Amino acid sequence: MTALWIAHVNVTDPEAYGEYARLAGPAIAAHGGVFLARGSRYVQLEGKDRARNVVARFPSVEDAVACYRSAEYQAALDHAREAAERDLVIVEENPA
């Protein structure tokens, strides 16, 4: 079953985070990830507001986790660690 990678982000260093985004996109695509939303309009109804929200679909939970653990994504993440406050969750989609 497909899985959603859902990130809620507050960017504190736009330059460093931009480098993360530049490197993360290809790493995500290499693992079958497709962006459904990136920095799009949103409405915060509950919880902590984060100005940037990202949703990507992967072929499976395992593919999404493999992406996160990959050397390419970890290299990208090195730029985001001190440049943003982030929450990231991977959720398996229910069948249609």
UniProtKB/TrEMBL annotation:
SUPFAM superfamilies: Dimeric alpha+beta barrel
The DUF1330 domain, residue ranges: 2-93
InterPro entries: Dimeric_a/b-barrel, DUF1330
Gene3D superfamilies reported in the protein's UniProt record: 3.30.70.100
UniProt protein name: Uncharacterized protein (DUF1330 family)
Provenance organism: Paracoccus versutus (Thiobacillus versutus)
Biological classification of the source: Bacteria, Pseudomonadati, Pseudomonadota, Alphaproteobacteria, Rhodobacterales
